[in-house]
Amino acid sequence: MIAMTEHEFTLLAGYIKRNYGIQLKAEKQSLLSGRLQQVLQQLGYDNFSDYLEYLKTERSGEAMSTLINKVSTNHTFFMRESGHFDFFQTNVLPYLKRTISDGDLRIWSAGCSSGEEPYTLAMIVDEFLGNEKMNWNAQLLATDISGQALALAKAGVYDSEQVDLLPKTWRLKYFNRVDASRYTVAPQLRQEVIFRKFNLMDAQFPFKRKFHSIFCRNVMIYFDARTREALVKKFYDFLEPGGYLFIGHSESIVRHSTAFHYVMPAVYRKG
Ligand SMILES: C[S@@+](CC[C@H](N)C(=O)[O-])C[C@H]1O[C@@H](n2cnc3c(N)ncnc32)[C@H](O)[C@@H]1O
């Protein structure tokens, strides 16, 4: 067991905060140390100071990528916080269908983890548009910082335990069985989601056009108040007027600090 000193924790936590926005409080020291043991062993380090030095000097990005895969919490599931999806289907999509004139629907799942959230959205959009889908460009953008999570998302293979909870019609239409314990997302649904690696802390958002809805749920929970506020402001700037922002139910936006209008718990709208 390689011990992490308090000083090394402070330096490492500072590095993670600066690069990913993720705030690790002092009580996370043993968790962080535990998650990185194997990484240090594989690299042949016997202390965290050398590892930190390596992190700062390694140029290919692999060191940072391994670190974020260890640090981020990727827990997610289909239809998570289902009230959001009901609202999206019954209120947001009808509004967008009425108001979008060029057939270009732009939805962003920011912090998509292993893909359950964007695939859920893609199924809802597909079902909602039905036969009219061919008149729309409805591909969703799904981004995450974790290469590991994105690889799972792109592979689109999920445990039966998860998929069996979805409506039968969805299971039949949007999934193919691999074996007794796994399903894979059907190609026609997979092509509706574009997965990209993207760090929400990047100074510039590289998007040419604004979004009609942004889902950034259970991501900002790991950020401190200032980082959250700055990110929410960026989301505001990158939403079309009348666009919606969905955040996690355990997250909130301080009302006096934002131009967003509160719609319902964890749903906000640009005026
Ligand atoms: C708990 S998952 C949320 C998944 C999904 N949105 C949901 O609500 O179920 C949080 C995700 O945020 C991602 N994340 C954390 N910090 C990030 C950052 N700075 N930029 C992009 N993604 C980040 C993590 O990699 C992780 O996959």
Can you offer a commentary on this structure?
The chain has helices at 6-20, 29-43, 48-57, 62-71, 82-99, 116-129, 147-155, 160-163, 168-174, 187-190, 225-237; strands at residues 107-110, 140-144, 157-159, 175-179, 182-185, 193-197, 211-216, 239-247, 261-264, 267-269. It is of the alpha/beta class. It has 2 domains: 6-71, Chemotaxis receptor methyltransferase CheR, N-terminal domain (Chemotaxis Receptor Methyltransferase Cher, domain 1, Orthogonal Bundle), CATH 1.10.155; 82-269, 3-Layer(aba) Sandwich (Rossmann fold), CATH 3.40.50.150. The strands form 2 sheets. The protein has a 7-stranded mixed β-sheet. Strands 3-5-4 form a 3-stranded antiparallel β-sheet. Helix 6 (116-129) links the parallel strand 1 (107-110) and strand 2. Helix 2 packs antiparallel against helix 4. The termini are far apart. The mean pLDDT is 96. Bound molecules: S-adenosylmethionine. The site of S-adenosylmethionine has 24 residues, from loops.
Overall radius of gyration:
20 Å
Shape: globular
Helical fraction equals 40-55%
Report on the biggest sheet.
Answer: 7 strands, mixed
In terms of DSSP E residues, the strand content is 15-25%
Distance between the termini: 54 Å
Overall mean confidence score, pLDDT: 96
CATH architecture of the largest domain: 3-Layer(aba) Sandwich
Quote the CATH topology of the largest domain. Rossmann fold
- Which cofactors or ions or other ligands sit in this model? S-adenosylmethionine
E-strand count: 10
Give the total of domains.
2
- Please give the oligomerization state of what you see: single chain
- Output the structural class: alpha/beta
CATH class of the largest domain: Alpha Beta
Point out poorly predicted stretches. Answer: none
The CATH homologous superfamily of the largest domain is termed: Vaccinia Virus protein VP39
